[in-house]
Amino acid sequence: MKKHALNIALASALILPAAFANASTGNIDFTGEVTTETCSLEADSAQINVPLGSWAAHHINTLDRTTARKFQIKLTGCDLTVAPSGTTGPVSKANFAFSGGVADGNAKLLKLNSAGGFEAKNIGVGISTNPTDLTTARVQFDRQAPLSMDLVDGDNTMDLYAFYEKFVTTPGTVTAGPANAQATFEVTYN
Predict the structure, then answer these.
(1) What's the number of CA atoms in the CB half-sphere (13 Å) around residue 184?
(2) Can you give the pLDDT at residue 171?
(3) Are 158 and 98 in contact (CB under 8 A)?
């Protein structure tokens, strides 16, 4: 039995170089960082994509804002006895500061990315911490009012709700086009 298996392995070893003589090669880069932070940002939370869907301009004009879509920022492996560099003592809160271009001078409304003038007009993207209160429980995109979350040892999740909102009051003023936006956030602990 062993002799037979060895013959197959030798035959395969002789065939492989010829089969792969014209193969291409590539590289794989692995990136990451080891920190002294209290928690780790889950890999899926480092680059979040929130599909807000396709909406008719006339529909947004009658609603003022679209239905909110839930997304999450996840912190994993939290150890409240670990103080991040630059702090002392245990921590109990994570603070999320958001930034991005604001729409119509409103720090609670994210402006849409430019699409060469073809982007949708007179709407922005809002984020709320409460799916039933999209008007007052809002994220600010000027880093001035971070959201605070009480932490527990282990995994922690911040639930957020994104939506489109028009920022003009005249009916029929939202125009069609790509409606993409981008924000960044930074997590600190205290």
Answers:
(1) 5
(2) 67
(3) no
